[in-house]
Each structure stands twice: as structure tokens, then as C-alpha cells.
Amino acid sequence: MTSRTPEEQRLRDLARLRRVRDRIDREYAQPLDVEALARGVNMSAGHLSREFRLAYGESPYSYLMTRRIERAMALLRRGDLSVTEVCFAVGCASLGTFSTRFSELVGMPPSTYRREAARATAGLPSCLAKQVTRPIRNQEARVDRSHLA
């Protein structure tokens, strides 16, 4: 048995983290949890969470929810599904959690976004609409509180 250098181990871990990220990107609508993701790459859940955060700046769960919200935004812009239908279509099991996370990332509730998105992206090709409406990553949406003063 040969021992790996620290650099070889780091590269191996990064490859496993990329596989986890790719799986989240592909299977965002499936029931995924950190334990299942970790099992898929032979890591403990705690180690995966720590290493994923170091590599990508957010936890695997946060990354998963961001992917789900991005897809939800596209479905809401389309306008033919209700907020509840969109919630379940992107893999969320709780409308409350979905709405809260959506509001944190986008800066408005999904029902408001659904109403306003059609107007804001009217006439834009879908590839551009996706770019200009991408949620803020690794931080909460900025809230204008000047009217509260």
C-alpha cells in the first residue's frame, strides 16, 4: 500500500467535492441530504460539509437550496405553475422553508416574484433573463430600509 502526499490527497478530495457539486446540479429536485451525498463519495457528512465550505464558500445544503431557487425562478417566470407546484417541482418538501429561502436569496417572496418577473423580463431571451435574475449567492438579498427611518 502506498501513502499519498498531502497534495495528492487534496486533489483527490477536490475531485470528490466536484462530484458532489455535479450531483447536486443534476439531482437538485430529488430528496438529497448531506449524509447521502457524503456516502456517495465515501466521506463522513461532517468532513464533506467542512471541505465543501472551504472549496466553494457555502455548505452543501446551501448550494442545493440555491440551485433549487434558481430553477424555481425560471419556473415562476414561465407563469404556468402556482408557487406550491413550483416548490414541489424543485424538490422542496416544505412550502414555508421554500418561501423563506426564496425571500432570503431573491429579496422578495415567490408570489411577488412570479407577478413581477414576467414584466421585468418581457422581451428578453430566456438565457438573458436567467443571467439578470440570478439569485445572490453566499449572502442575503439586500433590503432597502431607508423608508423605515
Detailed description of the structure:
- This protein is an all-alpha fold.
- It is 65% helix and 0% strand.
- The protein has 8 helices and no strands.
- The protein has helices at residues 6-27, 34-40, 45-56, 60-78, 83-89, 95-106, 110-120, 126-132.
- Helix 2 (34-40) crosses helix 3 (45-56) and helix 4 crosses helix 7 (110-120).
- The longest helix is centred in the first third of the chain and has 22 residues, at 6-27.
- It is elongated and about 60 Å long.
- The termini are far apart.
- Residues 138-143 and 145-149 have low confidence and may be disordered.
Task: Give structural attributes.
149 residues, mainly alpha, disordered C terminus
Task: Work out the strand percent.
Answer: under 5%
**Overall 3D geometry?**
elongated
Structural class: mainly alpha
Number of helices: 8
State the total count of DSSP E strands.
0
Q: Mean of the pLDDT scores?
A: 85
Helicity range = 55-70%
Could you give the order of the helices and strands?
A: HHHHHHHH
Q: How far is the N terminus from the C terminus?
A: 67 Å
Determine Rg (CA atoms, Å): 18 Å
Q: Largest sheet, described in full?
A: none
Low-confidence stretches: 138-143, 145-149
